[in-house]
Design goal:
By secondary structure, this protein is of the alpha+beta class. It has helices spanning 18-27, 64-81, 104-120; strands spanning 29-32, 36-42, 52-56, 88-94. α2 (64-81) packs across α3.
């Protein structure tokens, strides 16, 4: 069985620079869900085995506790399902409706629909 550590989001799998986030927000394809918006763009890095991911939760969604809970739930769902396609950068933006999500099952319902559409997007 694969260890939990080996399924984590490594630095290579994450968007870490603001410039990367801004570039994807300008040119990415939008995919709306009930509680999340996903922006998909072709990756600028070539030869990468996996796509990169960024998560954004603004203050409009809630206080720090709420924002961090949402990010933890999204990361946990991604750790379990690992759906970011190779050669793509994805930014997940939480909408105000995400503040009402309390469990991983609530997040999973929305992210599964978005993941299917991300896989079908042509970049």
């Amino acid at each position: 069985m694969e260890s939990q550590r080996s399924r984590r989001l490594t630095k290579a799998m994450r968007l870490r620079r603001r410039l990367d986030f801004v570039a994807i927000q300008r040119s990415g394809t939008k995919i709306h869900g009930r509680a999340f918006l996903a922006l998909v763009s072709p990756s600028e890095l070539t030869g990468q085995a996996t796509g990169r991911l960024g998560i954004t939760v603004t203050k409009r969604v809630g206080n720090a506790v709420t924002r961090n809970r949402i990010k933890r739930l999204v990361r946990e769902w991604l750790r379990l399902h690992g759906w970011v396609p190779a050669g793509r950068d994805v930014v997940i933006i939480a909408k105000e409706a995400a503040a009402e999500l309390r469990a991983l099952a609530d997040v999973a319902a929305d992210l599964e629909r978005i993941a299917a559409r991300v896989a079908a997007v042509r970049c």
